[in-house]
Specification:
The protein is mainly α. It is 51% helix and 5% strand. Strand 1 (34-36) and strand 2 (42-44) form a beta hairpin.
């Protein structure tokens, strides 16, 4: 029996419809080999492998500040000067028992 009134969906029904559409779209991404990352980010397997490789490459990096910039002409000579300056800094610091501050840069890893 019709009352002649048009049915208007409730806010909850509209939200359910929107959620169903979102889930449907996300299912398509899952099929296309996308892996959910942390903080709501999605990364492909290739991006994950590249990130792991990059982190391994940087795992032994150190950052030293207040080392004078090399005045050498070529990048190779600048790199050699930088390495010598860092090694001298480490040798001088260790041999004099000078207090060195050590801290990490960046967010801690969430396990």
């Amino acid at each position: 029996m019709s009352t002649g009134m048009a049915f208007e969906p409730t806010r909850a029904e509209l939200e359910v419809t929107e959620l169903k559409t979102t889930i449907s779209n996300l299912n398509g991404k899952t099929v296309n080999n996308v892996i959910g990352g942390h903080d709501g980010l999605c990364m492909t397997e290739e991006q994950i492998f590249n990130e792991i490789e990059d982190r391994q490459r940087r795992s032994t990096n150190i950052i030293v500040s207040n080392i004078p910039e090399s005045q050498a002409d070529t990048p190779e000579e600048k790199n050699k000067d930088d390495l010598n300056s860092v090694m001298k800094f480490i040798t001088d610091t260790v041999s004099t028992n000078e207090t060195v501050k050590c801290f990490r840069i960046g967010k801690p890893m969430q396990l």
